[in-house]
Specification:
Strand content: under 5%
CATH superfamily: P1 Nuclease
Structural class: mainly alpha
Low-confidence stretches: 1-36
Radius of gyration: 19 Å
Oligomer: single chain
Distance between the termini: 47 Å
Number of helices: 12
CATH architecture: Orthogonal Bundle
């Protein structure tokens, strides 16, 4: 790995240096929280927004029933709920923190549950588990409502490439980059920086993604779908050029990688609809 791009040195007075050390310590303390964010709020809302029009009538009705009483009772409205859990329910937020990602040890991106997802404690296992709860009519509405919120979020997470990578740099959090003359990290760039670079609002982004070619439908949805999606995301990270050369993000990188992010979001939206239709739709129409 090449050395991080060197930023222009700044002479700091003793007080400023102390503030810098405190800031660095704060970032270290917050590091586990940063791991859980994928796509940012906009990206997760886009995944949910693309899925909603493709729900079967029965699935749409069940989603509406389960989300009654929510502040924004739509898939879009609850898409980022799992990232907000630390303030809503700190205990559940802590217990579910590892459910947002998977570290795949195999260099070729072959997922091994024994190595990569012990006790189902990763996004692959969590997505499988929460989808099963959602599909179980014997479960309480509260359990299924919570499962719905997790499913919507985790389908988005598993399609963010750095949430299904090898984990050697904490999903890009430890891979520092220089973008537009400012320091950042690769995970933050993929969470929201690439999307913001287009200067589009949510409605314009949704229209842009919906105009992309639709992926080939897969029916019935294979039981191993979450694993396959994680492996596909991992291979995106392994692709040449994913890590910016010299840790510097220029326009050429954005031009090359923004379409990759768009395709991942489009795939996530279509696949989320497939998961919800499988769990809540009419089995005869699958």
């Amino acid at each position: 790995m090449s050395a991080p791009a060197r930023l222009c040195p700044v002479l700091l007075r003793p007080r400023a240096a102390r503030h810098r050390r405190r800031g660095a310590l704060l970032l270290l303390l917050l590091a586990p929280a940063l791991d859980a964010l994928a796509w940012g709020q906009l990206g997760h809302r886009l995944v949910a927004g693309m899925a909603e029009p493709h729900l079967q009538p029965q699935a749409r009705a069940e989603v509406a029933r389960l989300l009654q009483g929510e502040a924004e009772p739509t898939l879009t409205g609850i898409a980022s709920w799992a990232d907000d859990l630390r303030s809503i329910d700190p205990d559940l937020g802590k217990r579910s923190s590892r459910w947002h990602y998977v570290n795949i040890a195999d260099p070729g991106c072959v997922f091994d549950p024994e190595t990569d997802c012990r006790d189902g404690d990763c996004v692959v296992g969590a997505l499988e588990r929460q989808a099963a709860i959602l599909a179980d009519p014997k479960r309480s509405d509260d359990e299924r409502r919570q499962a719905l919120k997790f499913v919507v979020h985790f389908v988005g997470d598993v399609h963010q490439p750095l949430h299904a990578s090898h984990g050697t740099d904490r999903g890009g959090n430890d891979y520092q980059v220089n973008w537009n003359g400012q320091g950042s990290n690769l995970h933050s760039l993929w969470d929201s920086g690439l999307l913001r670079s287009a200067g589009l609002g949510e409605a314009a982004w949704l229209a842009r993604l919906q105009a992309l070619p639709a992926p080939a439908p897969v029916s019935p949805l294979p039981a191993e779908a979450p694993r396959l999606w994680a492996e596909q995301s991992c291979r995106r990270v392994n692709a040449p050029g994913f890590y910016p050369r010299g840790h510097v993000v220029g326009q050429a990188y954005v031009d090359a990688q923004l379409p990759v992010a768009e395709r991942q979001l489009r795939l996530a939206g279509d696949r989320l609809a497939a998961v919800l239709n499988a769990a809540l739709g009419d089995p005869a129409s699958q």
